[in-house]
Specification:
Blueprint (H helix, E strand, L loop, with lengths): L10 E4 L5 H11 L3 E6 L16 E2 L2 E2 H6 L3 E5 L5 H11 L4 E4 L5 H5 L3 H7 L4 E6 L14 H8 L19 H24 L3 E6 H8 L1 H9 L22 E4 L4 E4 L4 H7 L3 H4 L6 H4 L1 H12 L4 H10 L4 E3 L3 H6 L1 H6 L2 E5 L5 E5 L4 E2 L2 E2 L13 H7 L3
Helix pairs in contact: 1-7, 6-8, 7-8
């Protein structure tokens, strides 16, 4: 037993698949909870074969390995009365239930919140959906890119003349998983203090909207002015020059909030020094960035970073993954872990990003085979 794992002893029954729900249960598992993944017999979670990339290990997609480590698999046909009865008995002994079925499906299965609460009065129940309370969108696919498309976030990245630009990660899914996780943990605290059951609901759309809270608040209070992306080196539609990424002789550097006059003096650039009015950093943002970009391109990244570090300028090298993994700082993070699969083959993946009591949390248990733990769980929970 690891005394520093705060969720040890908790049982989570997870009906979700793909990314958002499993991301929440992954974090619960990493913190010590026992997560029992309910999968369809034979094929299991669709992300075993249909998600992320053409890279697989033992016929299973890398995403599934990454997001379902440390979990148990119980294969059950939820349309079978016998299997459904076993799953309900399992749920009756659980602390948390997570589901991301399409609207209406969970009710037809008889595993909706009200039914589960009747089985287990103090259950913490998390529902992950695409569009939350927006009934007019309820039948639309709850998919990451589609949620980004509707949320307005695509008009914040890329340069001004670029088309709508999605983020290159499944941010809607990951943020929704994080929000569901927070709600579950809050529910567990409420259950401990008040003995109550809680139904936590998180959606892709609401999560991406919340992610934009700063800029949406500005929009709501500045006369509904549309965000204006920079024509050059855009990194934030609402921040002034020099905020952006600049090409050097051999790579790129990122420069964050810095007074232009200070930067102009440091770089001995009279064209920049003349911008003494801070408002010009907004109104003449593209002109300033163009001047700065021209100078930054004349020297390698190391040259500029030496100057910036000495002057305490908020700047950074722009690493690719190869550069990142070679850096001393990354090595000190100890952020990767190796999992040994059932066949003996190993897979490298990331670890839980939070330390608890000074401990880096790593798991040694790989993602399960479909139904791998049926016999064990049937005996333990008397199913």
């Amino acid at each position: 037993m690891n005394n520093y794992l705060p969720l040890e002893g908790l049982t989570v029954v997870d009906f979700s698949q793909f990314l958002a729900g499993p991301y929440a249960s992954l974090k619960l598992a990493d913190m010590g909870a026992r997560v029992i993944k309910i999968e369809k017999p034979g094929m299991g979670d669709l992300s075993r074969t249909l998600y992320l990339s053409d890279t697989d290990i033992e016929g299973v997609n890398t995403l599934f390995h990454a997001i379902n480590r440390n979990k148990l698999s119980f294969a059950a046909d939820l349309k079978s009365p016998e299997d459904l009865a076993k799953v309900k008995k399992l749920v009756s002994q659980a602390d948390v239930v997570i589901q991301n079925f399409r609207p209406g499906v969970i009710e037809r299965l008889g595993l909706d919140y009200d039914t589960v609460k009747a089985i287990k009065p103090d259950i913490i129940y998390a529902s992950v959906t695409g569009y939350g309370l927006a009934d007019v969108w309820s039948k639309l696919p709850g998919q990451d890119l589609l949620a980004q498309a509707k949320s307005g976030i695509m008009w914040l990245s890329g340069d001004q003349d670029a088309p709508p630009t999605p983020m290159g990660l499944a941010i809607a899914d990951i943020l929704t998983g994080q929000n569901a996780l927070q709600g579950i943990l809050a529910g567990l605290i409420g259950k401990n203090r008040k003995g109550l059951s809680y139904h936590v609901e998180a959606s892709l759309m609401e999560s991406v909207l919340d992610f934009q809270f700063e800029v949406l608040t500005t929009y709501l209070n500045d006369g509904n002015r549309k965000p204006q992306r920079s024509k050059v080196n855009n990194a934030h539609a609402y921040l002034s020059a020099p905020y952006g990424v600049y090409e050097t002789q051999d790579g790129y550097v990122a420069i964050a909030m810095t007074p232009i006059t200070k930067l102009g003096e440091l770089l001995d650039n009279p064209e920049l020094v003349k911008f003494t009015d801070s408002q010009e950093c907004f109104t003449k943002r593209d002109e300033i960035k163009t001047i700065l970009a021209k100078q930054i391109k004349t020297q390698p990244s190391s040259y500029w970073m030496e100057i910036f570090v000495k002057a305490d300028i908020w700047a950074s090298d722009v690493f690719n993954w190869q550069q990142l993994l070679k850096s001393e700082g990354f090595k000190q993070l100890d952020f990767f872990q190796s999992l040994t699969l059932q066949s003996g083959e190993s897979i490298q993946t990331t670890r839980f990003p939070v330390r608890i009591n000074g401990q880096v949390l790593k798991s040694q248990i790989p993602a399960p085979l479909v139904g791998e733990h049926n016999e064990k769980l049937t005996q333990e929970f008397d199913l």
